[in-house]
């Protein structure tokens, strides 16, 4: 095993900005020193908790098992995975290989204690890590305190909890060491992303023609990438990137549009100020924050389709039925002879003033702005025969369309009524707006204003 200092130095280079946490973890779980029975590692998302803990335990060559709570639906599954992972890790550390047998039943923390005592008795130290255990589904209140006390019962066992936000009363166990992973600052994020700068040119540049080789390309991208990341943080990342993962995604999405003038030959690789001025528009929009399903620039056809109102497509006679129901709901029954009789030639006129020609003292509210009134089924069917272009018999098709409108809640039953929906005495009330039913009427050649009373 490598010396402790060399392990710390190697891990610090692999995980920058986490030197203090690596030093504390390597000290606590070094093989030649006793480890605390319970340790809490906490921090927000995308702060490197899980990956650093795993890397430290692997570098120290300590037998360990990591249980991810996101993969466990129930508490029993969490405990059984802990038993299986512990058994396989111990056999792998002893050189006997992995075991492939029947899954061991484990339903309680006491059963887990018995299995762990049998499995780790041949190793001097074992670390059991529960990652994200504070978000375990269907977890009882006694799960975390029970798991935390396993380290005090079994001498060669150390429990590590990786959680998001610590709670003083989470474990009911005093003296538990806590290791915090703070969020990355601007300098930390730029330092981490600078470890892997993106290429400026996707295709290899002709060295003989442009006198530009691999060494110059590496120097240019190492010089340009950190300055670009700083601009992304100041313009977008500071307000929209909540963690390192989101900030990295934004930087990757905007990199190719940013360096396109360099690829085209308009600007040089070191003309950062001119490049920033020419490409400042990409830092002012939100294209990098929107998902890939949403198109940044909708086509003219999509804009025309959005401008058109969309209505529920109904069968042919259902449209007439809904128009008849609207007229029956907003027209007084006493005016049905005026608007729906076809026996004589008549003029439909608006009844808004007095007979003597004097102005009315009271302004009348349009009827379609009032609440709909209930109507009977036989009245709606009579209005339907009046507004239809050609007469139709009352067959099962009409009855089916009435049931369809009722199931869509475009027609609502009112009152107790009878159990039969198609009883002539059943009363309904229309449940749609004037804009919808007028457009529906125009689609079948009916202008409802000619039939609507004032």
Automatic annotation (TrEMBL):
It comes from the Eukaryota. The keyword Nucleus applies. Keywords: ATP-binding, DNA replication, Nucleotide-binding, Nucleus. Residues 225-284 form the ORC5 lid domain. Residues 14-160 form the Orc1-like AAA ATPase domain. One of its GO terms (molecular function) is DNA replication origin binding. It is found in: Nucleus. Its main location: nucleus. Residues 345-364 are annotated as: Disordered. SUPFAM superfamilies: P-loop containing nucleoside triphosphate hydrolases. GO terms for biological process: DNA replication initiation. GO terms for cellular component: nuclear origin of replication recognition complex. Residues 314-452 form the Origin recognition complex subunit 5 C-terminal domain. InterPro entries: AAA_16, ORC5, ORC5_C, ORC5_lid, P-loop_NTPase. The keyword ATP-binding applies. Belongs to the ORC5 family. This is Origin recognition complex subunit Orc5.
């Amino acid at each position: 095993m490598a010396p402790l200092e060399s392990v710390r130095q190697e891990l610090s280079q692999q995980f920058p900005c986490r030197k203090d946490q690596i030093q504390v973890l390597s000290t606590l779980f070094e093989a030649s020193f006793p480890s605390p029975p319970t340790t809490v590692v906490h921090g927000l998302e995308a702060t490197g908790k899980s990956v650093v803990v795993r890397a430290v335990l692997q570098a120290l060559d300590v037998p360990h098992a990591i249980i991810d709570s996101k993969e466990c639906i129930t508490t029993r599954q969490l405990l059984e995975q802990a038993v299986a992972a512990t058994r396989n890790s111990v056999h792998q550390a002893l050189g006997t290989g992995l075991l492939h047998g029947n899954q061991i039943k484990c339903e309680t923390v006491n059963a887990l204690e018995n299995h762990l005592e049998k499995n780790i008795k041949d190793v001097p130290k074992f670390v059991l890590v529960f990652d994200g255990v504070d978000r375990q589904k269907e977890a009882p209140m006694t799960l975390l305190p029970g798991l935390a006390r396993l380290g005090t019962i079994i001498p060669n066992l150390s429990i590590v909890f990786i959680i998001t936000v610590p709670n003083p009363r989470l474990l009911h166990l005093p003296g538990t060491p806590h290791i915090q992973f703070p969020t990355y600052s601007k300098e930390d994020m730029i330092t981490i992303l600078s470890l892997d700068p993106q290429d400026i040119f996707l295709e290899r540049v002709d060295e003989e023609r442009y006198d530009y080789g691999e060494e110059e390309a590496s120097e240019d991208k190492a010089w340009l990438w950190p300055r670009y990341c700083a601009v992304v943080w100041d313009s977008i990342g500071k307000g929209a990137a909540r963690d390192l993962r989101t900030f990295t995604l934004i930087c990757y999405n905007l990199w190719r549009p940013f360096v396109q003038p360099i690829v085209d030959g308009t600007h040089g690789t070191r003309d950062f100020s001119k490049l920033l001025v020419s490409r400042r528009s990409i830092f002012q929009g939100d294209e990098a924050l929107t998902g890939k399903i949403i198109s940044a620039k909708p086509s003219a056809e999509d804009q025309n389709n959005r401008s058109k109102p969309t209505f529920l497509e109904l069968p042919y006679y259902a449209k007439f039925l809904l128009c008849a129901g609207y007229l029956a709901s907003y027209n007084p029954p006493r005016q049905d002879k005026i608007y729906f009789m076809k026996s004589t030639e008549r003029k439909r006129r608006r009844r808004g003033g007095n007979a003597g020609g004097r102005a009315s003292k009271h302004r009348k509210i349009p009827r379609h702005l009032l609440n709909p009134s209930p109507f009977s089924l036989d009245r709606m069917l009579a209005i339907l025969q009046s507004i239809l272009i050609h007469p139709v018999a009352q067959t099962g098709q009409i009855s089916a369309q009435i049931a369809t409108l009722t199931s869509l809640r475009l027609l609502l039953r009112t009152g107790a009524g009878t159990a039969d929906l198609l009883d002539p005495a059943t009363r309904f009330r229309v449940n749609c707006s004037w804009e919808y039913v007028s457009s529906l009427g125009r689609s079948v050649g009916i202008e409802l204003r000619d039939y609507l009373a004032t």
